[in-house]
């Protein structure tokens, strides 16, 4: 009897990406918030943004609820958030 091992991941195409440049300072920066639609994710995001506001004078400029944890955020929405904000915070609820 022969045992044949299979890779459950199959083949995948990879795309080389780089990290966004690190911000030199958080002072006065604009924050975008992205939630996955799960319970309490919005609460976690708002509380986190409030900490950045208190400690660094940041302000919230955008909030988007993608309403489905299983789907990625629409590219056009991400692009709009990037235009509005200096950085984005995302959270998962439950």
Describe the protein in words.
There is one protein chain. The chain has helices spanning 41-56, 75-84; strands spanning 30-35, 59-65, 87-91. By secondary structure, the chain is α/β, with parallel strands linked by helices. The model has no long low-confidence stretch (mean pLDDT 89). The protein has a 3-stranded parallel β-sheet, sandwiched between helices. It starts with 29 loop residues before the first strand and ends with a strand. The chain has 2 helices and 3 strands.
Topology summary:
Elements (H helix, E strand, L loop, with lengths): L29 E6 L5 H16 L2 E7 L9 H10 L2 E5 L3
Which descriptors would you attach to this protein?
94 residues; alpha/beta; 2 helices; 28% helix; elongated
Task: Give a concise summary.
With 94 residues, the protein is of the alpha/beta class. The protein has helices at residues 41-56, 75-84; strands at 30-35, 59-65, 87-91. The protein has a 3-stranded parallel beta sheet, with helices on both faces.
Please bin the fraction of helical residues.
Answer: 25-40%
What is the arithmetic mean of pLDDT? 89
Major β-sheet strand ordering:
2-1-3
Report the strand count: 3
Strand content: 15-25%
């Amino acid at each position: 009897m022969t045992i044949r091992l299979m890779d459950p991941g199959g083949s995948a195409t990879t795309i080389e990406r780089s990290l966004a440049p690190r911000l030199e300072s958080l002072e006065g920066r604009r924050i975008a918030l992205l939630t996955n639609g799960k319970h309490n994710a919005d609460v976690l995001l708002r509380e986190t943004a409030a900490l950045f506001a208190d400690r660094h004078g940041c302000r919230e400029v955008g909030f988007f609820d993608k309403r489905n944890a299983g789907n990625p955020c629409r590219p056009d929405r991400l692009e709009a958030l990037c235009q509005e904000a200096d950085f984005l915070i995302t959270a998962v609820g439950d």
